[in-house]
Amino acid sequence: MTKILITGGAGFIGGNFIHFMMKKYPAYKIHNLDLLTYAGDLTKHHQLYSYPNYSFTQLDIADRKAINELFYKEQFDFVVHFAAESHVDRSILDPGIFVHTNVLGTQVLLDAAKAIGVRKFVHISTDEVYGDLPFRPELYFTEETPLQPNSPYSASKASSDLLVRAYYETYGLPINITRCSNNYGPYHFPEKLIPMAITRVMKGQKVPVYGTGQNIRDWLHVYDHCAAVDLVLHNGADGEVYNIGGHNEHANLEVVKTIIKTLGRDYDLIQFVEDRLGHDKRYAIDPSKIEALGWKPVHSFESGIAETIQWYQENQRWWQQILSGEYRQYFEKQYSIE
């Protein structure tokens, strides 16, 4: 039986990837590894515990002894590494946590993967490692764009990318690195722009928008991202980097206005706030390389945002327990989290 370790599987993208893989590959054994920090949510996986091919371990990826024991016990065939501290604002306040998890944690996983000889290590990164793009539509991030991170978060991800590359070049560890644009979709933790805006508008609360709201992001539906990672896992050429973008560039203000309009509220809910430190102006990905591998995004932003808003309308119980903190009780009892 093929065994896959998915780190960060209690998070937004990793959690959706588990659902994707369980559905597409029912014969695979899926092991979910997550520390269950504030953004870790296992309620989305409650229906999986009856599946004999799903298992979960609560563990810090930087805990070398425990990670080594897990790898030697399970003998994973593949590792898909989503686990990361990912919120830019939090990285500005406390960069050290990001270095611990994103850099040291990745290095610990690489050592363990090398020791047991995994067939593939896929490292999930971000387009933010490339830095900033001017407002010029002909400019895009490619896999050859130099890394120029501008926040402690993106700097920690760029550092982990370079470690992953080094383990391929030095030790021959079969790896791939994927760098995606901004994801959105079901189970997105409400601190991020789209779920924050949806939940606040539904509650009639003000939606904070940084600066003038003209910062542009390339939006990628999480289901399209999952399909791309699956393709890279099984068909990516060893050592290669693949950019994953949605061909959906929109300014933050435009995104918030779309949400407000769809939910039938007034734009006076928008509240402009002081801009984020070092706020990158624009991200935009050229996904030609992964498209040549056989991938195309299925969701346009128009269809994807409409489906996402509907999901939050139909799953209010999920995000309400996230906002209240009640979701922590679900697994504190099971995993003795302090």
Automatic annotation (TrEMBL):
<dbReference type="GO" id="GO:0008460">
    <property type="term" value="F:dTDP-glucose 4,6-dehydratase activity"/>
</dbReference>
<feature type="domain" description="NAD(P)-binding">
    <location>
        <begin position="5"/>
        <end position="308"/>
    </location>
</feature>
<dbReference type="InterPro" id="IPR005888">
    <property type="entry name" value="dTDP_Gluc_deHydtase"/>
</dbReference>
<comment type="similarity">
    <text>Belongs to the NAD(P)-dependent epimerase/dehydratase family. dTDP-glucose dehydratase subfamily.</text>
</comment>
<dbReference type="InterPro" id="IPR016040">
    <property type="entry name" value="NAD(P)-bd_dom"/>
</dbReference>
<dbReference type="Pfam" id="PF16363">
    <property type="entry name" value="GDP_Man_Dehyd"/>
</dbReference>
<protein>
    <recommendedName>
        <fullName>dTDP-glucose 4,6-dehydratase</fullName>
        <ecNumber>4.2.1.46</ecNumber>
    </recommendedName>
</protein>
<dbReference type="InterPro" id="IPR036291">
    <property type="entry name" value="NAD(P)-bd_dom_sf"/>
</dbReference>
<keyword id="KW-0456">Lyase</keyword>
<keyword id="KW-0520">NAD</keyword>
